[in-house]
Design a protein that fits this description.
Helix content is about 65%, strand content about 0%. It is mainly alpha-helical and about 150 residues long. α1 (about 20-30) runs parallel beside α4 (about 60-85), α4 (about 60-85) crosses α5 (about 90-100) and α5 packs across α7.
Length: about 150
């Protein structure tokens, strides 16, 4: 008699992500990857479409994903605000370019100073108006004065 071949299993056993312990693993992966479903799916070795559907269909998981995303967004805003306070011209230019408040005051991607050099980029324009310098430049000037 010929030995019967076992059917080959093509996928890992399915997991019910809506029940424990898998739900906790899903929440942890979302937290670790700041709400990024693609990265969380890779970490869990699950399909992105499956995880997207599960999160979308579960209000608690949707809220959790948003909370995780909000955490990284808050860190980015805090870091950007710190750079602006330090006088980092790239950070200042970014804020002036994307902020709705700055746009209402006339700032934007192609802002030009009236009567000024139209070839100046936004960072240079901000430096001229606010009299600010990049912190590194300020420290270098200070060191030159001490020598």
């Amino acid at each position: 008699m010929a030995d019967a071949k076992k059917p080959r299993q093509s996928r890992a056993p399915s997991r019910d992500w809506t029940k424990e312990p898998y739900r906790s693993q899903l929440k942890e992966a979302l937290k670790d990857h700041f709400g990024n479903i693609t990265q969380a799916s890779k970490a869990l070795r699950a399909t992105r479409d499956n995880i997207t559907r599960i999160v979308r269909d579960d209000p608690e998981l949707t809220a959790w994903k948003e909370q995780c995303y909000e955490g990284i967004y808050s860190k980015a805003v805090d870091a950007l605000a710190k750079r602006v306070e330090e006088g980092n011209m790239s950070a200042i230019a970014l804020v002036m370019r994307v902020s709705p408040w700055a746009k209402r005051r006339g700032w934007g991607d192609h802002m030009q100073l009236s009567g000024g050099d139209s070839s100046k980029d936004l960072a240079t324009q901000a430096r001229d108006i606010f009299g600010l310098q990049n912190q590194k430049e300020a420290l270098e000037e200070e060191e030159k004065k001490e020598d």
